[in-house]
Design a protein that fits this description.
Elements (H helix, E strand, L loop, with lengths): L3 H28 L33 H6 L3 H7 L39 H6 L5 H9 L1 H4 L13 H12 L18 H61 L1
């Protein structure tokens, strides 16, 4: 059996260990004490995104398709379609590849090229490949027709799309005429100015005629009165003078 001295040593070692651990705990708490925030809670970093209508992220509005086609270049469009020759042919009677032959595609019915297996999404879309439909499809094919098998990412720039569409338009025996550019109405100020000028000119001419007539009338009356007055005065003076001289003689 253990005597009291051995028991005391064991208890002393145990207590010393506990005191050492407590001291280490107090020292660690003093060194690594957490900073207490002024406001309770967690601070979450949020990246501010500009509003949708802000001027910084707002993309400039594209010109109407009619205006873009009016200034389009067939040569630039043909150059832009060079990468498309991997999947498409452009000559009359050309074979279908990964994509259908594009001869006469403008104003052609969708999914109508003989011998080509179109996707279900393209078949169900229906309609014709008008200028407007081609412009939307070339901008983003998968957004315009979800489920299409075409993996082309699209042409972001509107002017380049217009060049490509203008080139595709020429791939026909009877090319579809370009749409007419809508004429913008004249400003309201210009129209009112034209009306004012027309009204002023119409009202001004009769007034000048009246003035001319008044001047002519005044001149004629003045000349007649002065002539009559001068003739009367001259005749009276001459007759009186002759009678006076004759009577005296």
């Amino acid at each position: 059996m253990l005597d009291s001295f051995e028991v005391n040593k064991i208890l002393g070692a145990f207590l010393g260990t506990c005191l050492a651990l407590q001291a280490v705990h107090l020292m660690a708490g003093a060194v690594f004490a957490p900073r207490v925030p002024e406001t309770p809670g967690y601070e979450i970093a949020v990246t501010e995104t500009p509003a949708a209508g802000s001027q910084e992220n707002a993309k400039p509005a594209e010109e109407p398709l009619e205006q873009r086609l009016a200034s389009a270049s067939t040569e630039r469009g043909q150059a832009a379609t060079k990468p498309c020759e991997v999947c498409h042919t452009f000559e009359k009677g050309g074979q279908n590849r990964v994509g259908p032959n594009l001869w006469g595609v403008v104003d052609r019915d969708r999914a109508s090229e003989q011998g080509f297996n179109y996707s279900a999404a393209m078949k169900s879309k229906g309609g014709k490949w008008t200028f407007e439909e081609l412009d939307k499809f070339l901008a983003n094919p998968r957004r315009d027709i979800p489920g299409t098998a075409m993996t082309f990412a699209g042409i972001e720039r509107g002017r380049q799309r217009a060049d490509v569409i203008d080139y595709l338009r020429t791939l026909s025996d009877n090319p579809v005429p370009l749409p007419q550019v809508a004429q913008s109405p004249p400003p309201a100020g210009a129209e009112s100015d034209d009306k004012s000028d027309a009204k002023g000119g119409a009202n001004g001419e009769p007034k000048s005629d009246k003035s001319d007539k008044s001047d002519a009338k005044g001149g004629a009356n003045g000349n007649a009165k002065e002539g009559a007055k001068g003739g009367a005065n001259g005749g009276s003076k001459g007759g009186s003078k002759g009678e006076s001289k004759g009577g005296a003689k």
